[in-house]
Amino acid sequence: MLSRLINFLRACWRSSSDRYVHTCSDAAGRQDGLLWYKDIGQHLNGEFSMAVVQANTLLEDQSQIESGCLSLLDSGPYGTFVGIYDGHGGPETSRYVNDHLFHNLKRFTTEQQSMSVDVIRKAFQATEEGFLSLVTKQWPTKPQIAAVGSCCLVGVICGGTLYIANLGDSRAVLGRLVQATGEVLAIQLSTEHNASIESIRQELQSLHPDDSQIVVLKHNVWRVKGLTQVSSLHK
What we know:
The chain is 26% helix and 29% strand. The chain has four helices and 13 strands. The chain has helices at residues 2-9, 92-112, 117-138, 198-207, and strands at residues 30-32, 35-43, 46-53, 62-67, 80-85, 87-88, 149-150, 152-158, 161-167, 173-177, 184-188, 215-218, 221-224. It has a four-stranded antiparallel beta sheet, covered by helices on one side. A three-stranded antiparallel beta sheet has the order 1-2-3, covered by helices on one side. A two-stranded antiparallel ribbon has the order 6-7.
């Protein structure tokens, strides 16, 4: 299947983007036309593979796998990190998240000497604050950066525990093999932040009671401020 996809994409124009993934434990993946991919490889917590198909002239998305990089003092390798960053309006936010989120996670993990929900939340907050600071600095000469955002979906495996964190409407799905039947069950691990979901609309309306236009039905699609369906963007 992968070879067929590669052959199909060979007919497409060559991408000008030169950034797809950063890893601390293995080499970057391969690029063929609009397809970037990393074949299955062994990591600390199992085998991983990754693929990105470019849809726009400029690739707005980023992804990364970091394995054996979450070291706590002398405890040695401490887990695997997987990040998917779905950019919107440009590549700046997803690239910033790709460059800073994992490093912030390492910093807070070291400070607290453990992995936890609080550590991941702090890493997300620090990354968002850092990007907002960048937007403030670049605003006078590059005002369009204020309209750039990114969804952020992260999985962290350490100590036998899988942590899933997300902002935006990217979804994490776990495939679980049923030994008795050989069937693979799809288990949803995260909940999207999307205005098409009634509970999300209600949350937005409760957070912005004075804004009657916080969610607008436009062309039979619910959108935040009539612009985007995604309700959690780094902006």
